[in-house]
Amino acid sequence: MSPASISELFFWLATALCAVAQVAVVRAALAGRTPGASLSPVSKARELFWVVLPAALLALLLVWTWRSLPGRAATGNASSNAQPRATVAAEFRITT
Amino acid sequence: MNDREVSPMRDFVSLTKPRIISLLLVTTIAPMYVAGSPSWLDVLIVSIGGYMMAGGANAVNMYMDRDIDDVMSRTRLRPIPSGRMHAISVLAFGVALAVFATWLLGHFVNVLTAALALGGFYFYVFIYTRWLKRTSPQNIVIGGAAGAFPPLVGWAAVTGRVDLPALYLFLIVFYWTPPHFWALALLKQKDYGKAGVPMAPLLWGERETMNQMLWYTLILLPLTLLPVAFGAFGLVYLASATVLGALLLHGVLRVRRETIWTKAAWWTYKYSLLYLALLFVAMVVDRQFRT
Predict the structure, then answer these.
(1) Looking only at Cα atoms, what is the longest distance across chain B?
(2) B121 and B138 share a domain?
(3) Which chain A residue has its CA at the smallest distance from B135's CA?
(4) ipTM value greater than 0.90
(5) What's the whole-number mean pLDDT along residues A6-16?
(6) Are residue B98 and residue B196 in the same domain, yes or no?
(7) Pairwise CB contact (< 8 Å): A65 & B219
(8) Pure H helices in chain B
């Protein structure tokens, strides 16, 4: 296997584990988990929002990571293995 | 110790919660060495600025929580509830620290670093302490973002920007926070209940909190390994993160498995502190090996 394939395999295994666990977190919030107390629709919606927000940000980060994998550098939109920070920085930067 | 024996200087230091900040400093300084080769002066200024900003946030937190600190045994001896300091002095001290830290970081490092540090201050004071802490069991999850700012601060201090690896460091601290603090919340749930703080064990029950600790740990562990996939870290870090993560998972599983879980929860709480510190040290060691 090439280093690029290993990186991709590594990425997908880690992403799959993150996804399963994150879905479990969201599912628990959807199911409602406050024994003996009925949450108002507003409270439930607010709790769901706070659970879904990090999940959405994590998904965005994983997409960005996918685009930065060494194997995808050939497409011209990702970082190389040797200088990841420099190229990634060119892709998206928050500067002063 | 008798309250009268505590010196004012010691009270001022305790307002900053120095033990908590020591871990924040590790997660600030380590990213500086991962991002580049900072001078000792840069590290010193960022450390002082970081300490003052986090210390300011902690002091303002003690001002805002003075009513519930008096109720909880864990916090009853703090300077305000014990009557050793006036609430308004504590607020002024916290704000002064934050203002000075902003100036220090903005003037001697860069504006982005100062803005990120101040962002962490505002997040901790307003989003966590003022809003979520007393209204939502998600307080620890979202509040964890405040503690995740330091890696961004350290990274920005060296590079002047925020890159993908820096965001991973942010997320690692963010997803580390729930299993860490819920282990403590399980142990101190009666205290939190007396103060009316809606911690997860009180609202969801112990079993569901333990389940959530496991899920968040299972998100955290692959997140710590993903930077290896895009080349930010190498084999030294991969091996360290795997071993450290396996031990954390072992602790969380023990909390779930054992009928009398108190010891396991204490172990997990304490080990998770060591885990985060060693993970960041491993990043620096890995970087030194690769350069």
Answers:
(1) 56
(2) yes
(3) A43
(4) no
(5) 93
(6) no
(7) no
(8) 8-15, 18-35, 40-64, 66-69, 87-108, 111-122, 139-147, 149-159, 164-187, 189-195, 200-204, 206-229, 235-257, 262-290
B178 and B283 together in one domain: yes
| B153 and B173 part of one domain | no
Together in a domain, B225 and B251:
yes
Instruction: Report the chain B residue with the minimal C-alpha distance to residue A87.
Output: B163
How does pLDDT run across B28-85, given as a tens digit for each residue? 999 999 999 999 999 999 999 999 999 999 999 999 999 999 888 888 889 999 999 9
A49 is written with which tokens?
Answer: 């929002």
Regarding whether B174 and B87 lie in a shared domain, the answer is no
**A56 to chain B nearest CA, in Å?**
13
If asked whether residues B16 and B124 sit together in one domain, one would say yes
**What CATH number is associated with residue B283?**
1.20.120
Q: Which residues contact B231 (CB under 8 A, 6 or more apart)?
A: A7, A70, A79, A80, A81, A82, A84
Residue of B nearest to A92 (CA): B163
Inter-chain touch A84–B159, beta carbons under 8 Å: no
pTM given for the model: 0.90
- Structural domain harbouring B5: 1-162
Interface test with chain A among B128, B163, B238, by most A beta carbons within 10 Å: B163
What's the structural domain count of chain B? 2
Question: What phi, psi does B278 have (nearest 5°)?
Answer: -65, -35
Give me the pLDDT at residue A4, please.
79
Which one is predicted more confidently, A1 or A78? A1
Tell me how far CA of residue A39 lies from CA of B193, B201, B210, in angstroms. 18, 16, 21
Does B112 sit within 8 Å of A33, measured CB to CB? no
Partner-chain residue, chosen from B137, B219, B231, that has the shortest CB–CB distance to A79 = B231
